[in-house]
From TrEMBL, chain A:
<dbReference type="InterPro" id="IPR045087">
    <property type="entry name" value="Cu-oxidase_fam"/>
</dbReference>
<feature type="region of interest" description="Disordered">
    <location>
        <begin position="389"/>
        <end position="415"/>
    </location>
</feature>
<dbReference type="InterPro" id="IPR033138">
    <property type="entry name" value="Cu_oxidase_CS"/>
</dbReference>
<feature type="domain" description="Plastocyanin-like">
    <location>
        <begin position="446"/>
        <end position="556"/>
    </location>
</feature>
<dbReference type="GO" id="GO:0005507">
    <property type="term" value="F:copper ion binding"/>
</dbReference>
<feature type="compositionally biased region" description="Basic and acidic residues">
    <location>
        <begin position="389"/>
        <end position="405"/>
    </location>
</feature>
<dbReference type="InterPro" id="IPR034282">
    <property type="entry name" value="CuRO_2_CopA"/>
</dbReference>
<keyword id="KW-0479">Metal-binding</keyword>
<protein>
    <submittedName>
        <fullName>Multicopper oxidase domain-containing protein</fullName>
    </submittedName>
</protein>
<keyword id="KW-0560">Oxidoreductase</keyword>
<dbReference type="GO" id="GO:0016491">
    <property type="term" value="F:oxidoreductase activity"/>
</dbReference>
<keyword id="KW-0186">Copper</keyword>
<dbReference type="InterPro" id="IPR011707">
    <property type="entry name" value="Cu-oxidase-like_N"/>
</dbReference>
<dbReference type="InterPro" id="IPR034279">
    <property type="entry name" value="CuRO_3_CopA"/>
</dbReference>
<dbReference type="InterPro" id="IPR002355">
    <property type="entry name" value="Cu_oxidase_Cu_BS"/>
</dbReference>
<dbReference type="Pfam" id="PF07732">
    <property type="entry name" value="Cu-oxidase_3"/>
</dbReference>
<dbReference type="InterPro" id="IPR034284">
    <property type="entry name" value="CuRO_1_CopA"/>
</dbReference>
Length: 758, 276
């Protein structure tokens, strides 16, 4: 796979300095690294794309320390943009934590910045940029903190095994800023690329028409387990690689970090069971499993063995959406493959979602107390657990209802992966710390969070507030903070706390495991607790990069804490921090058709929307009109949007001579300039009902739906209003930004054309 | 000749050719191997079933030998560089079950892991069951239970494989050593259970397998009632199957796990009789 690995190092000198810039001065036990951050071009897919390499490599170099060392890391920013580095899961003074505008000011272009902190723990950790979307471009790397040789917790047979750091990640040829923009614009291009459109024709073919209708009735878009389509999945920067230095019968400890920006990975191994020995840098009692899911930004230490001679066993990392995978072959010789995970049964997933979604957008757990990933609703989509999809099952849904009458199957059994099959899947309830992790005595503070959001507008929040809308949460040093989280959104979220490890209350009593990430699935409730023992402003957020950037997080600070000397102007720093989720996303579309131009332009952020639509004919008969709306989305699901508008229209009476609307009001259709007040509401079936009052007293009611997924690539649009105007259209998506469109408009007649969108 | 060569090479740019041994048996293997390896305009595979040698022609900029061989291995065919996953090999049609090069111990282990209830040690070893005092129908029952477990998982190919084991166990029964009452029932049901088991083997369609499982279960019930069992066996009933006509099955566990609906209706049903 050389071709995908060529990273162009433009300045040879940099590389020479960079390759091994580690100086260890034994007297002080200071371990020093130099990191040169530089723009680079990479070629993972056959196309040259921009990425960021550190010391000429992706992932960033593995940093190794031993407990008791002092880390001294020089970051040389050789890019044209700001950067920062966050030491994920590492206990350190707040000002070394690496969150720009919160714990430090960003590292400017050309600047050399020094992070210096004592290493006071051991375990598998990692580091990444906390600036913008740089993590997606290659800024992730392993950080291994070894135990001291005389550590009382040293485990023979585990801590003395050969270890290999592995960092998982993903690559997209799209610019991450564009990925973020497309997510906010509810583009379904990623679903098309994944083959996960779940259109009406696909639903009918799979015998799931009713499921699809119910899904849209409940105002949901096609469901998926992840948001972004990626071109490549990588382990240590490679799609396929081999650990050939290992011999038969040997065991190896893989220190795995998930450095993916938005991908959870399934981990499976062709050479037998996987033994989990540590999680998020903390030892756990060894537990044998067949597979596990590593959520975004988690770390796991896994022990695997090489059972037979002259064979290399495939260690497979499969993204949750199962579109592709990455392989690491452990051992040397012929490569023993493991079965790839079969494709998801999306319509089963849709049916499951329908069942748990209430009409108001809340989730209904039907009395199941879900937590710790033990019950996984997604098993309905996994063929290896619940069997292959049965095509056109003879009225399966009908059967189900009748059955419910006489003997309700136990809910828990239906979703408990380990009870349904002989495949052992790790869940958080199986993790146990070898140590007593009870917190010191102290007052308890309870914090409750509801994880909220909606996929349609890609807004993710806590208690329906994004970072910039919420106050800093203040805790007191010495107290024990208990966090109770309930996930009322449709996606899973790996929630990460900076600077502290928390205990996950998972039924293991005193030996509750310590973690700094918890992946919380829809409808789950998890309880965490930690001792507030280090001053500072600490970020607590969802680690899916695009969720974090849209504001899913909080700042947790301490009462009466000393000021951070690195933040000279806290007010302007805070404004910068908040700008991430206040950011407006731009979207534009125009249809160049035989009967005129149809298009729109939109700027949107978490709450606000500014949009202009136009219909421009080629002559006065067809007319010209524009409508501009400035509105604010209300509520958690954002179905309601009051707006103020401005309309302008000019035309000579055309094809459809309507001067009176349905309410008997006449309108100055030919030449009109109007202000309006209105409200848009998303009805079941995702129909948008828009009611508008113009300043001359005219009222207009309009019903509209765009993007009805007819087939994988065909989208239908419908519009009708009380001015007796109507439109029907059909668009066929050719590529990300281009489509063919045919439509009939009551003003402008029939037209075909080319649709361009951004 | 020259013309044809040109037209061939025009299909794959930056063409590179290599030969490699791929294990397989028959014409069916040939088409499966070539289908798995070929990618339009990128890679062409031609496999010779006599020499077992494949000629790979591929665009060396877009792909490489390992990528092609990996795809072929995932379809069930071993090569010098890749061993197929055991499940992929097991799914090949019977005629394609070529002799594998890799160590057998590993394969057996994988097979044992893939069954739900760990089978009794003697289950596959029919000679061990000829002794008079050991209930020699036990292998038949175990075969039946494994089949039932495969149906619970709605796994058609596993069910087909388990039915094959069951069939082997049925054929291994020495009628003359059966106890008189067992003998009578065995005479009565043997033909039917054989037919049902055969049908289940022949298809991978779970719904069809379940149809046969209804009559198979009825006959097994008659048999197990007159047999001496080490542990209680539960006769269980699902009232909904077959448009409400209902169906029965036998299980070693009292908890309901419905083989007629699997995960759809896992715990639908009730125990109607406990056979000791």
């Amino acid at each position: 796979m050389n071709r995908s690995q060529r990273i162009y190092k433009s300045i040879v000198l940099t590389v020479i300095i960079a390759l091994f810039a580690v100086h260890i001065s034994y007297g002080q036990k200071v371990v020093r690294y130099h990191l040169y951050v530089k723009d680079t071009m990479v070629n993972f897919t056959g196309k040259e794309k921009r990425a960021i390499a550190v010391n000429g490599q992706i992932p960033m170099p593995t940093l190794t320390f031993t407990e008791g060392d002092t880390a001294e890391i020089y970051v040389h920013n050789e890019m044209k943009e700001n950067t920062s580095l966050h030491w994920h899961g590492v206990f350190l003074p707040n000002q070394e934590d690496g969150v720009p505008y919160l714990t430090q000011m960003p590292i400017e272009p050309g600047e050399t910045y020094i992070y210096r902190f004592p290493i006071i723990q051991h375990g598998t950790h990692w580091y990444h940029s906390h600036s913008g979307l740089q993590e997606q471009l290659g800024m992730y790397g392993s950080m291994i903190l070894n135990k001291r040789a005389n550590d009382p917790t040293f485990r023979k047979g585990i801590d003395d095994l050969p270890t290999v750091p592995v960092v998982l990640s993903e690559w997209t040829d799209y610019n991450p800023n564009n990925v973020e923009r497309m997510l906010h614009n509810a583009s379904d291009w990623f679903a098309i690329k994944k083959g996960a459109t779940q259109s009406y024709s696909e639903a009918i073919k799979a015998g799931h028409f009713k499921t699809k209708v119910k899904n849209e009735w409940k105002r949901m878009l096609a469901m998926d387990v992840s948001d972004v389509y990626y071109d490549r999945f990588l382990m240590n920067g490679k799609n396929q690689s081999t650990l050939s230095q290992l011999k038969t019968g040997e065991k190896v400890r893989l220190r795995i970090s998930n450095g993916g920006a938005s991908t959870n990975f399934w981990l499976t191994y062709a050479g037998g069971k996987i033994t989990v020995v540590a999680n998020d840098g903390n030892d756990v009692e060894p537990v044998e499993v067949d597979r596990l899911l590593i959520a975004v930004s988690e770390t796991y230490d896994l022990v695997v063995s090489i059972p037979a001679e002259n064979t290399a066993y495939e260690f497979l990392a499969t993204p949750e959406d199962r579109t592709k995978s990455a392989s690491l072959y452990v051992g040397s010789g012929t490569k023993q493959l493991i079965s790839p995970l079969p494709r998801l049964k999306y319509f089963e997933g849709m049916k499951m979602m329908n069942g748990m979604m209430k009409m108001n957008g809340d989730l209904d757990d039907m009395g199941m107390n879900m937590s710790l990933n033990q019950m996984d609703m997604n098993v309905v989509m996994y063929p290896e657990i619940t069997g292959e999809a049965n095509k056109k099952d003879k009225g399966a849904s009908g059967d189900q209802d009748e059955h419910a009458n006489h003997s309700m199957p136990s809910m828990e059994d239906q979703y408990n992966s380990n009870k349904l099959s002989d495949i052992v899947t790790l869940n958080y309830a199986m993790l146990q710390s070898p140590e007593n992790t009870t917190l010191p005595e102290g007052p308890v503070r309870e914090l409750r969070f509801e994880l909220t959001g909606n996929m349609n507008r890609y807004v993710w929040s806590l208690d329906n507030k994004v970072v910039s809308e919420a106050d800093k949460i203040l805790i007191r040093k010495g107290e024990n903070v208990r966090i109770i989280m309930y996930n009322n959104s449709m996606m899973r979220h790996p929630m990460h706390l900076h600077g502290h490890d928390f205990r996950v209350l998972n039924g293991k009593g005193k030996n509750a495991p310590l973690k700094n990430i918890i992946d919380i699935m829809p409808m789950e409730t998890d309880t965490l607790e930690f001792n507030a023992n280090v001053y500072g402003d600490w970020f607590f957020h969802c680690h899916i990069l695009y969720h974090m950037m849209s504001g899913m997080g909080r700042v947790i600070g301490y009462e009466n804490q000393p000021k951070n000397p690195l933040i000279k102007n806290p007010r302007s720093a805070q404004r910068k921090l908040f700008s991430d989720d206040r950011h407006f996303h731009f979207m534009a579309e125009n249809d160049f058709a035989t009967n005129g131009n149809d298009g729109m332009l939109m700027f949107q952020n978490t709450r606000w929307s500014l949009g202009t639509e136009w219909r421009l004919g080629y002559n006065d008969m067809h007319g010209y009109e524009t409508e501009t709306h400035i509105g604010r989305y209300i509520g958690k699901m954002q179905w309601l949007m009051p707006f103020i508008g401005f309309d302008w229209r000019y035309r000579k009476m055309g094809i459809d001579e309507q001067e009176e609307n349905l309410f008997g009001q006449s309108n100055t259709k030919d030449n009109r300039t109007q202000f309006s007040l209105g409200v848009a509401y998303t009805l079941p079936m995702l129909l948008i009902l828009e009611t508008e009052v113009f300043h001359d007293g005219n009222v207009r009611v309009q019903l509209m739906r765009e993007d009805i997924p007819v087939t994988k690539r065909a989208r239908m649009a419908l519009m009708i209003n009380s001015d007796k105007e109507y439109m029907v259209g059909l668009r066929y998506i050719l590529a990300k930004n281009i489509g063919l469109r045919a439509h009939y408009d009551s003003d402008m007649g029939f037209g075909v054309g080319m649709n361009l969108n951004y | 000749m020259l013309l044809s060569f040109q037209s061939f090479s025009a299909q794959v740019d930056n063409s590179k050719t290599s030969t490699v041994k791929i294990y397989g048996n028959c014409g069916m293997c040939e088409s499966a191997i070539e289908k798995a390896g070929n990618v339009k305009k990128v890679a062409t595979v031609e496999w010779n079933k006599d020499s077992k040698i494949a000629t790979l022609t591929y665009d060396s900029v877009k792909t490489n030998q390992d990528e092609i061989l990996r795809r072929i291995a995932l379809a069930g065919y071993d090569s010098e560089h890749f061993f197929a996953p055991d499940e992929a090999y097991a799914k090949l049609p019977a005629c394609c079950h070529y002799e594998r090069a890799k160590a057998a111990t590993h394969k057996d282990e994988a097979m044992a892991n893939s069954t739900i209830n760990k089978p009794e040690a003697g289950m596959h070893d029919h000679s061990a069951m000829t002794s008079q005092d050991k209930n020699q129908l036990k292998a038949v029952y175990e075969g039946y239970f494994s089949l039932k477990d495969a149906l619970i998982k709605s796994d058609g190919s596993a069910a087909s494989a388990k039915a094959k084991d069951l069939l082997a166990a049925i054929n291994a029964v020495k009628m003359e050593t059966l106890k008189p009452e067992e003998h009578t029932v065995w005479m009565k049901v043997k033909e039917d259970v054989t037919t049902d088991a055969e049908h289940i083997t022949e298809t991978k369609e779970v719904s069809h397998q379940r149809d046969h499982f209804t009559t198979l279960s009825k006959n097994m019930y008659q048999l197990i009632k007159v047999s001496k069992n080490d542990a209680p066996v539960y006769y269980q009933h699902c009232p909904m199957y077959n448009d409400g006509k209902g169906a029965d099955w036998l299980s070693k566990e009292s908890a309901i796990k419905n083989p007629y609906y699997g995960s759809q209706m896992l715990s639908c049903g009730k125990t109607v009789e406990t056979i000791n």
